[in-house]
Automatic annotation (TrEMBL):
The keyword Transmembrane helix does not apply. Pfam families: NUDIX. Residues 30-196 form the Nudix hydrolase domain. This is Coenzyme A pyrophosphatase. GO terms for molecular function: coenzyme A diphosphatase activity; metal ion binding. Its cofactor is Mg(2+); Mn(2+). Keywords: Hydrolase, Magnesium, Manganese, Metal-binding. It comes from the Bacteria. InterPro entries: CoAse (IPR045121), Nudix_hydrolase (IPR020476), NUDIX_hydrolase-like_dom_sf (IPR015797), NUDIX_hydrolase_CS (IPR020084), NUDIX_hydrolase_dom (IPR000086). The lineage of its organism: Bacteria, Bacillati, Actinomycetota, Actinomycetes, Mycobacteriales.
Amino acid sequence: MTIAYDDALRDQIRARLADHHRRTVTDSTKRRAAVAVVLVDSEVGEDRIDPAPVDEWIGGRPMPEAGLDGHMVDVAGGAAFLLCRRATRMTSHPAQWALPGGRLDPGESVVDAALRELDEELGIALPESTVLGLLDDYPTRSGYVITPVVIWGSGRLDPRPAPDEVMAVYRVGLHQLQRADSPRYISIPESPRPVVQIPLGHDLIHAPTGAVLLQLRWLGLEGRDDPVDELEQPPFAWK
């Protein structure tokens, strides 16, 4: 069942973010970054074909399990968030799933950084008044503290991805975050902490993006206050 994109959803998420005692990270050795969790409207069936050339960059490498082929298909419908596939030419985490975002400029707030990165990466310029609130900080293995900024897009919007940074952008229905097989956790020898996996389409989204999306579900949709900052990233995301 899709989730209606309406004023009731907007007000619910805004109220839950306002009432939430946000967990922050003040480690001065880590660099600060922000990501934009942009909530938009979408239509069922508009994403039957994944525009990204997934088969080309996978290059015949086997996927981790049956049913996963890396494609983001059949995920749209109702209230959704914007999810990006990073460009293959990027030096850091090429072709991985990500929310629009990046490092803070000197003197910049997390809100300003999220809105700036959204404009630079997807060509979407939104005012500060569209911000509903902030999720918890997430410290990454690569030396960043990421602050997720939740933004109400007030409709469908019209993303125009910057080709140097974004291969494709998808409208992923919020109902996909509540799939019966989500979240998943696995163990790795490199860490005692569980690695979180969020199944979307025909792929798995890992932390930090997966952790942000899990808290969006738990807090924004279900009113749960569970922390996500201790959920582990897979080793390929540690660099």
